[in-house]
Design goal:
The longest helix has 15 residues, at about 230-245. This protein has 2 domains: about 5-50, no CATH class; about 55-340, TIM Barrel (Alpha-Beta Barrel), CATH 3.20.20.70. Helix content is about 25%, strand content about 25%. It is built from 9 helices and 22 strands. A hairpin with a 5-residue loop joins strand 2 (about 10) and strand 3. With about 350 residues, it is of the alpha/beta class. The strands form 6 sheets. Strands 16-15-14-13-12-11-9-8-22 form a 9-stranded mixed β-sheet. Strands 1-6-5 form a 3-stranded antiparallel β-sheet, with no helix packed on it.
């Protein structure tokens, strides 16, 4: 094992083991052992991060791909991740990265300054910590984010929100927006399918929305027969409205068979439309569909007058009818989010890039 980067979220146990305290899993490790995430390990009597400064790749994406529909629409975001994950989702759609146990996956390297330089050079308004969860590479993400913020570049966490209270303050102090993956709305699903628990995620969501200035959107990947029943979707969307508020956007995305869930069919488009309708009936003002071509499900609509404000074709903006200051161009109602008077023009293209410093 190569020398890792120092971390501070750990503690010694009476047994002689050292406990990682970043996430609710709290892996207790002997010398040389790695946590379930694979990237946080015990080395020299402390927990270190083995992936600081190393990435599985860099790409410029449309911000809508994160997905974020109410955060600097149309702008490019520099996306990167590392390897590993602190959950064990059987349906993982990025399993080749998040479940990797090969350090060869981390073929690219970049210092925080190198990443910020690249974002500036490529005209990116933000940097996204994505592909795998930034919770497990917290120290690297925080260092990059601090460098970016100092240059006026915003930071986006794409996360499952499975994190303890102290570390989440550490991570999200550097973030401007987050898309949180709410994988289901039963603890049984989280335990049996993801190897985690639901309540820590709900606690993270309450905290993010009510106690921080981070802009938050939610995504749920709907898996046929697993988390897509009317009852579960009604309970989830009612909870969002009651606990987080009606203005938190929700994205319902289509599953495709992958990793350990190859025996489940892809999500029908009708399931996403049904979920969006259930969310709207529960009071969610901004409900979207993803991973399918759905003009209605891609459109941002004013909840006051019903005007179609932002029309999208996949990740490309087709029409922009927002008014100044993030308002409806028709009636003037304020639309929650982070908007500028003019949208970006990046479109739907993806641009792989090499940074290497």
């Amino acid at each position: 094992m190569t020398a890792g980067h120092p971390t501070r979220w750990w503690g010694a146990l009476p047994s002689g083991k050292v406990e990682c305290t970043v996430c609710p899993r709290r892996c207790a490790l002997q010398e040389g052992q790695r946590g379930l995430c694979f990237v946080r390990a015990r080395q020299g009597g402390e927990i270190v991060l083995t992936t600081w400064g190393r990435s599985s790749g860099f790409c410029v994406d449309p911000i809508e791909k994160k997905p974020l529909n109410h955060f600097l629409p149309g702008t490019p975001v520099l996306s990167f991740g590392t390897a590993g994950c602190n959950l064990a989702c059987a349906f993982c759609q990025n399993w080749d990265i998040s479940k990797s146990r090969q350090m060869d996956t981390l073929a690219d390297s970049a210092t925080p300054a190198g990443l910020a330089d690249a974002a500036e050079r490529l005209g990116c308004r933000s940097v996204a910590y994505t592909y795998n969860d930034p919770i497990i590479f917290l120290e690297y993400a925080a260092d990059v984010a601090a460098e970016c913020r100092g240059r006026g570049i915003k930071n986006v966490a794409v996360t499952a929100g499975y994190i303890e209270a102290g570390p989440r303050e550490d991570l999200f102090a550097h973030m401007d927006a987050a898309n949180v993956d709410l994988k289901a709305f039963t603890d049984d699903f989280y335990w049996r399918v993801c190897g985690g628990r639901l309540e820590p995620v709900l606690d993270t969501l309450r905290w993010l929305v009510h106690e921080t200035s981070v802009w938050v959107e939610l995504t749920t990947l709907l898996i046929p027969g697993r988390n897509d029943s009317d009852e579960e979707l009604e309970a989830m969307t009612r909870w969002v409205v009651d606990e987080l508020g009606p203005d938190v956007p929700m994205h319902f995305s289509a599953f495709h068979p992958d990793y350990k869930m190859l025996d489940v069919v892809a999500t029908p488009a009708g399931t996403l439309t049904r979920a969006r309708s259930i969310a709207q009936d529960a009071g969610v003002r901004y409900a979207y569909t993803g991973n399918v071509h759905d003009a209605a499900g891609d459109t941002t609509v004013c909840p006051g007058c019903g005007a179609a404000l932002i029309e999208r074709d996949w990740y490309r903006l087709q029409a922009w009818r927002m008014g100044p200051g993030g308002t409806c161009g028709a009636c003037g109602q304020v639309i929650p989010g982070v908007f500028e008077d003019q949208p970006g023009q990046w479109g739907r293209k993806r641009l792989p890039v090499s940074i290497g410093r």
